[in-house]
């Protein structure tokens, strides 16, 4: 089995690349007022997702998303990343195996991963900060980029 070992110094670059990718596709749009039941369902989804993520980030768990996949799938994801592809897949948080119904709404939940060789965290963050507010002259309104270098 050929498992790719990621050096600790590459981990921030991978995480930053994911954040940049997430911010690229955030575009504000005009819409109507959300209904209370839609907001409540969304908040339930966020709470369940944050709980799942907190569990996944425990020290004894796998940190990188590809490592949560079975062997062959994991190796395929890493092969694609090494070839310069961006890996994107849809996610869905459930509560005890039950889908979270969102009346009058749809939740789009995706994960995207890119590997950026021969770069450093400073350069990735510089690009990410620029993308946070504008992409191709379009205001993104992205408030999702939060980096804690503690």
What is the element layout, followed by pairings?
Blueprint: H1 11-24, H2 36-56, H3 71-82, E1 87-90, E2 94-95, E3 98-99, E4 110-113, H4 121-133, E5 134-135, E6 138-139
Antiparallel strand pairs: 1-4, 2-3, 5-6
Helix pairs in contact: 1-4
Task: Kindly describe this structure.
By secondary structure, the chain is α+β, with helices and mostly antiparallel strands. The chain has one domain (8-139). Helices cover 40% and strands 11% of the residues. The protein contains four helices and six strands. The model is unreliable at 1-9 and 145-150 (pLDDT under 50).
| CA(first)-CA(last) distance | 35 Å
Outline: globular
Percentage of residues in DSSP E strands: 5-15%
Number of strands: 6
Number of domains: 1
Strand order of the largest sheet: 1-4
By DSSP (H or I, 4+ residues per run), the number of helices equals 4
Low-confidence stretches: 1-9, 145-150
Helix percentage range:
40-55%
**Average pLDDT:** 76
Main beta-sheet strand count, sense and barrel state: 2 strands, antiparallel
Q: Rounded to an integer, what's the Rg over CA atoms?
A: 17 Å
